[in-house]
Batch of 2 targets.
Target 1
Amino acid sequence: MKISELSRRSGISVPTIKYYLREGLLPPGISTAPNQADYGEDHLHRLRLIRALMDVGGLGVGAVRKVLQAVGDERIPMHQVLGVAHHALGPLPDIGPVPQDVVRARSEVDRFVASLGWNVSADAPARRALADTLVALRRLGLDYDVQAFRPYAEVAYELATRELEHVRATTSRADAVESAIVGTVVFEAALMALRRLAQEHHSAKRFGRARRR
Amino acid sequence: MKISELSRRSGISVPTIKYYLREGLLPPGISTAPNQADYGEDHLHRLRLIRALMDVGGLGVGAVRKVLQAVGDERIPMHQVLGVAHHALGPLPDIGPVPQDVVRARSEVDRFVASLGWNVSADAPARRALADTLVALRRLGLDYDVQAFRPYAEVAYELATRELEHVRATTSRADAVESAIVGTVVFEAALMALRRLAQEHHSAKRFGRARRR
DNA sequence: CCATGATAGATAGTGCTACTATCCACTCAG
DNA sequence: CTGAGTGGATAGTAGCACTATCTATCATGG
């Protein structure tokens, strides 16, 4: 199909598709002439994946590119793809000196993860993300302990069990990898939305029943 | 204290504090002369809250301003503050025409929420956010049903129960409101981080044990 | 008491990101 | 054969979160 049809079927403007081509998010079509190229269903699917990661997952162009590279790289074994994706999604590496309270929080988090018996690589970005939340709470004067995260950890454990079983049920590597990525990013957004809905429900039940606004 | 001390103790540069003052995120200090003002501990605390919302919660300046307005507005009753915060956090209102599949997903989500027996306002942004995730999954060719969200809903329900109980235990309105906001935003980030850690653990267990990278 | 540095407030500029717009030479469909 | 569409390149834009600079003041230590 031509780029105009790709644009129409994906709902993404032609200039934006050209931009994704330039940025390496979308592989080029099959060139049939100096100024003609042919795009297939896989291009359409790729565009939808890009939009899902950006719109639902909130990823930037750079993060999407990293994730897609990991998905497309056959040399990366299954059990590493999630890690690579998490590195693309997670916070950037440290820039300046790390404050004292952050250092302490990180080691608390590391001990906490170890106490859960979880087998997670030492440089997982989510470790630092979790430590950052702990630091934020404490800087606000709320003296939480890492143990406050335990119920969340138990919940996360059960969800991850379910999700990984689902991934195993799929067939090809490409499908498995993509469903793992989508599971991480899209179901994360779904879980957030559901948590907020549940909070509103409980808030209404506890503090009153009048409608908002 | 003077702005330089506020800057030193908060770790935020003086120009940035001035920027927050201009943007209305931080209330002005008590003016003691045409070019002098005095800032208190509450300003320091407010700055830490701003950074928590921005750095951990990923909110922009506009969203932070809306949330802080809701926190500070005594007229807004407790049971509405969370809703107001969710409106500030959630997706923007529709701009163009809403595609057919989105319309269908929204009504499915509405029926799903009703089937859960949750009492949530009809215009809660999280409804649309959840519908968007469903649409994203389907556009990727994964024909999920809303019911796939049920386990997540159950988990979200239990977490929200626990969290709202914690809010009730606090005392003043200001504290309660702030802890509700912080709970929504910061514990959301913590839950995400823990879910990713749990995923890595299960991924390592299921697909292999070699270290990444 | 006066030089030095900080301050409030205002205006303008920066770097980054995700697009958009314009241009060109070319080509394909009617 | 003409006019809309195309690939490829370059340049421009809008929004965001700061950052820099300026001015008129003010605080303070020698």
Target 2
Amino acid sequence: MRYSKSFIKTQKETPSDSDSINASYLERASFVEKQMAGVYALLPLGFKVYQKIENIIREEMNTIDSQEILMNVLSPKELWEETGRWQEMKDILYAFKDARDKELALSPTHEEQLTSIVRHKIHSYKDLPQYLYQIQTKFRNEPRAKSGLLRGREFLMKDLYSFHQDEEDLNQFYEIVKKAYLKIFARLEMPVKIVEASGGPFGKEYSHEFQVLAPAGEDTVFYCTKCDFAQNKEIAKVEEGDNCPKCDGKIAKDNGIEVGNIFKLKTKYSKSMGAVFVDENGQEKDIVMGSYGIGITRCLASLVEMFFDVSKNKMVWPKEVAPFDVYLIDLEGSQGEKVYDGLVKAGIGVLFDDREVSAGVKFSDADLLGAPYRLVLSAKTLEDKKIEFKKRDQEESNLVDIDKIIDIFDNDEK
RNA sequence: CGGGGAGUGGCGCAGCUUGGUAGCGCGCGUCGUUUGGGACGAUGAGGUCGCAGGUUCGAAUCCUGUCUCCCCGACCA
């Protein structure tokens, strides 16, 4: 992509109404545009990062044999009344009547919808298990949207639902999803903690939240500094400074952002909605369910909270999700096009800053936009037919032969 | 939904107390000089001051209502 033709319009100053690091960065760097409180549009840069996150999730979901679907956003009141959630969720439900006076809601989550589909299709133990997921916009009328994309009224989420014959099968799959989630967050370079949280109204078993520690987080996490013990403050029976109940470590306390959660729904929805199957003995049973979510736009925001250096206006995106691999600057004017073409042909994602602006502007945008690599051509480097190569998470840069630049990228990927 | 703060060119702000029909920086257009860290000169375009009503000869400025945004709280993937 050439900067001069792109829709990238960075700003020097942060928007006055931004309420968090992620919001001010994402708006300033023109990744997103705020439409109203808690509602953001993804612009080309933001959408690019979003899609890369989405694809990582999709890959890992497909790897565990779950099948992608896309459900409807509009859902009828009757469905929600089956589980009592029309009332229960009324404060956050975007509910309205259409022109024919039919009562509808914009779906805040999809347990009801998918359960209604599954009960129509699944009748025998031979049909189980099933794993279905979707990536879609959720609508929740938050009483107070805040923290940029961390708590919006409209947000993108991956939600997976599993359907089993019995709890044993659910438990097995639950652990598989847990591993898949760890893989996803590792690829996103997000250091997550698996945090025990309330399992809800059914049983005293815990659900698990995937939390990244960050000052902007709204949750409070108690965790062991030595082992993997971690609990959400709602259920924590430990205090900061306590001894860890699992090892000889100490308990610490921090803010966390919940980027994912996994939950054993068991028969909560199947029971109230009549989603049943016939087992080997001809007996009718409730389908056992699990649900597993990842907030994708929330991940996008969390990455900014983690990797944006506010004092230096510097961002470095994780390699797998960066909007571009490399930011190319040509201060001399003769070789830029050639290098750009070479990178494009080699399949390297490059943003070529071909604007007629001062060097300083280009360097500061390179810092702001956050590509993991930076290449600079100048009279100085060209004296020896070199180009400056900088890994942006490091201080030093070095000069490499222009002709070998593609090889450098290939080698660095290893 | 309770308490507090704020809405003035695309962005960030000043003006409002002490009414006289709008100003600065950035950005944007044109011309020229610049180019290793947000360059400089010249010139130009762009707002009727969130919205509605009221007071007044006259309202960005005073009064009332309303909408929106932000903060604190309740709530929350």
